[in-house]
Every structure is written in structure tokens, then in C-alpha cells.
Amino acid sequence: MRALPSGRLDKRVIASWRVGRAIWTGILSLVLIASAALAWALLPELVNAGWVLAAVALSLLVVGVFVVAVPQIRYMTWRYEVTDDEIDIFKGVLVHTRVIIPLVRVQHVNTSQGPILRAFGLATVSVSTAAGEQEIPGLSVEDADKLRDRVAVLARLAQEDV
Hints:
By secondary structure, the protein is of the alpha+beta class. It has helices spanning about 10-40, 50-75, 115-120, 140-160; strands at about 80, 85-90, 95-100, 110, 120-130, 130-140.
């Protein structure tokens, strides 16, 4: 079996993943708690304050797992490496995925930033082939630009050799 790729994501990606997850889990938690409170207000004979407390407890559990723990574990499992012949990506918390992209198959490569990544000075490199697109998220903008340019040059050289 092959060794894991050596490239790591920028550590700031953990915080950016946490912010993104906090936004979504916060919205879902508010909906859950508001629904329980509304049910208590409209149907006090069927729903008591325990339901609202249960919704709050469930929300805190979800936030603890998905906002605090999962981004750290996800960061620890993410690896990538670019060689002269291929791009090797290893990722996954519960299901580990290994993707090997021959550079001769690369059609184009780009970088992108959403508002959260931009706030942390990070970017994502996307590599497109006929089979689909793979992303390497959470690289510093400088590293993402260098990686994008390197993959573009190596892909061009690989296609010239064919």
C-alpha cells in the first residue's frame, strides 16, 4: 500500500470550517428551539418546557460535535501531494477516500475563495478532469496560487509527452 500524501492544509482551515459549520448549525438550532417553544406556547397540554430544554440540549450536542470536533478530525485526515505524474488526495473522517489524478487527464485547474475562506486568507484549488472535479481546500492564498500554477504547467507538459 502506498504511503499517505505528505501535503497538509493550512491550520487556519480548521477555524474557517468551524465558522461555516457554526453558521449552519446555529440556523438549524434556532429553528429547532423556536419550533419547540412554539409548540409549547400553542399546545401547552401536550408539550411542556422539557421539550424546549431537550431542543437546547440537542442543539448544544450538535454544535459540540459538528462545530468543535469534526473540523479538527477532518483536518487531521486531509492530505494531498502533487508529483510530476499525478495528484494524490486522501480525505475522509468516517469514509476514507483516496483519489489519484493523472496529470495527463487534467483539463483545467483554478483557485476560488468564498467569503469565509477570504476572511481567513485561504483559498481552494479545484482540478477538473473529464470524470469530474476534485478540490484541495484551505490552502493559504500564496500556496494555492503556486499549486494551481504548478499543476497547470505539469499538466501541459504531461499532455505534450503523450
